Amino acid sequence: MSEPTHENTEKPRSPAGERWVWLSGSALTLALLITLTLVAVVLGHGLSYFWPKTIEKIVLDDGSARLGQVSNRDVDPISGEPRVQYKIGNEDWYGHAFEWFDRSMIVETSIPRDAVLLERLSHGRFFGFLTEVRGGGTIDLGAVDPWDRLIEAQERVGELQKTVDDYEAEMHALNRRARKVGDQLAKLLYDRVPEDDPRVVRLREKRAALLGEIDAILEKSSAEEARIRQVATTFRDADGREGEIVVADIVRAVRPNAITFTEKCSVYASRFWELLSEEPRESNTAGGLFPALFGTIFMVFLMSIFCVPLGVVAAIYLHEYAKDGPLVRMVRIAVNNLAGVPSIVYGIFGLGFFVYMIGGRIDDLFFAHRLPEPTFGTGGVLWASLTLALLTVPVVIVSTEEGLAAIPGGIREGSLGIGATKFQTLTRILIPMASPGILTGFVLAMARAAGEVAPLMLLGVVKLAPSLPLDGEFPFVHFDRKFMHLGFHIYDVGFQSPDIEAVRPMVYVTTMLLLFVVATMSLTAIVVRNHMRRKYATGSF
Question: 56, 31, 156: which is closest to 106 by C-alpha?
């Protein structure tokens, strides 16, 4: 009789390390979800800021009324009743732009078609009803309907404003010439040239003539502005209170409740273009972000010019020429440690070394006649870019060395074996093949530099820069000028404004724009890197 057989009931064991693969995949998925959630929140709040929302009129239980747009809905933490937050605007009338109302307080809600939203140069947005438009003797308005008269008045005032803008451009050019003459005069006086010297006398007369022209143009511009400001409107709020608003102070007038979807899209595009092309207003809480956008891109570009060549040359020397020893190992340890140094430490170093030491010395040698007003001995875009180049150069060094190390040794030996010099091998074979690693370091350095704020606060970033570092004025690139930055703009608007409710949309908008800039520059570099990787692909890559 045969013995019974026992079937093997043990479960097959999973391959070694499979659980760690699943754990790594889960961590990656979680990281991607967090990143996508962040981007979705920023885009959702940022893009919705430009859409012309419906204006509601609410009547309260005390008989008063308000016009505004719904900003938030939640439950009162004390009473437990649902409540609604409205952006009522009219800050110069009410003293605040947002107000909470319990639902029990709201007796009636309506959507008036003739409700008007005004975006103004100052005092924020205004919600009201248009009652009258007056030309003030400056312009003749042919339209009868108040809204048509407002549109016509805005067009006519815009034409008149071009004359004022031409006056301002002319004054700016004369001011530039006057500053140049004044600088030449100050240099002569610093060199102890006598007061009665013909050169000094000629420069004084030329400067006085320029200032006289500026005063004459300023008088014309002031007279034209006074005429423009006679064109005014009368608006009333939901309670019937009336007030005057000058047409020249109105940036945009919209009736969201009376326009079609296509017209709302047009308003949306207009607001988005304003963000990209105009200067900020209302202490950076409204208007455009062009100076901050330009300053960020220009600083990153300038930083890259200093950072990438320096990092690549250092990596080539360490990997291809330096003999391995205690000194080289110490240098590599120092490079790796520098990548973890807090950015504010670099800012303090840049302030002491670049600004006070090098910039102060440049002022002593070339701009002594301007002292005690510093030229390069203060924060500027040049010193900020150099400091961020030092901050990011360790990343470029490490990634470039990794790219060089990934090249098979046989390629070097084959090049040298057919008679090529070491320099020819380096420039024609090794560097092109290591370019994916170099571009990886460039992407990482660029992304970090674009988001840094702490060192820039010590090295030239400002709340509002009147002039760009790059313009049409000789020498065209002005390394000594201060600049605006999107990251600092987020800090300034989000933490330095007294009314966080009013500036929160601008924080999201600026964050969205900064993410877009970083993503665009990084994706461009990644596309180039992938092209180079395919071109110089080997079995070891």
Answer: 56
Instruction: Collect all residues with Cβ–Cβ distance below 8 Å to 522 and sequence separation of at least 6.
Output: 443, 446, 447
Is residue 68 within 8 A of residue 87, CB to CB? The reply is yes
Do 73 and 84 form a contact (C-beta atoms < 8 A)? Answer: yes
- For residue 224, give the amino acid letter: E
C-alpha span between 376 and 356 (Å, rounded)? 9
Strand partners, 87: 69, 98
CATH number of 290-535: 1.10.3720.10
pLDDT tens per residue, range 117-136: 999 998 889 999 999 999 88
Half-sphere exposure (Cβ direction) of 485: Cα atoms closer than 13 Å = 26
Q: How many Å apart are CA 128 and CA 57, to the nearest integer? A: 10
Q: Pseudo-torsion of CA 149, 150, 153, 159, nearest 10°?
A: -130
Average pLDDT across the chain, whole number: 89
Residue 128: both structure tokens together: 């009201």
CA dihedral 346, 351, 353, 355 (to 10 degrees): 140
Q: Which two tokens stand for residue 282?
A: 């209302």
Prediction pTM value? 0.88
372: preceding bond cis by omega (within 30 degrees): yes
- Helix and strand totals (H; E) in the chain: 15, 12
Q: Are 211 and 205 in contact (CB under 8 A)?
A: no
Print burial letters for 196-205: b (CB count within 10 Å at least 16), e (below 16): eeeebeebee
